[in-house]
């Protein structure tokens, strides 16, 4: 495991210490969990952005196919 030195504003550290104490975990564990949570959020947002871009790339074709299905569904002999 690697050691990291970080400068934090006093109020942020006091709040982290307070929450760590309430959770009965060491400060380092609290900070590790905070980093893991933010990493997961960033990964999720990146995945969401990729899905949106992919959806936008195929939107026109999807709309064309949907229109064809609508025509077929409304056809009397379909």
Key terms:
78 residues; 79% helix; 2 helices; mainly alpha
How would you characterize this protein structure?
It is built from two helices and no strands. The mean pLDDT is 92. It is rod-shaped and about 70 Å long. It is an all-alpha fold and 78 residues long. It has helices at residues 10-23, 27-74. It has one domain. Helix 1 (10-23) packs across helix 2.
Low-pLDDT residue intervals, each spanning 5 or more residues: none
Structural classification: mainly alpha
Binned, the helix content reads over 70%
> What is the tally of beta strands?
0
Radius of gyration: 25 Å
Tally the structural domains. 1
Order of helices and strands: HH
Topology:
Blueprint: H1 10-23, H2 27-74
Quick recap:
The protein has helices at 10-23, 27-74. It has two helices and no strands.
């Amino acid at each position: 495991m690697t050691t990291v030195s970080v400068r934090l504003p006093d109020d942020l550290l006091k709040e982290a210490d307070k929450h760590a104490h309430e959770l009965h975990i060491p400060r380092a564990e609290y900070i590790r969990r905070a980093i893991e949570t933010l990493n997961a959020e960033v990964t999720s947002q990146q995945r969401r952005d990729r899905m949106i871009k992919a959806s936008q790339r195929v939107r026109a074709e999807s709309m064309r196919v949907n229109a064809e299905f609508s025509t077929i569904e409304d056809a009397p002999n379909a």
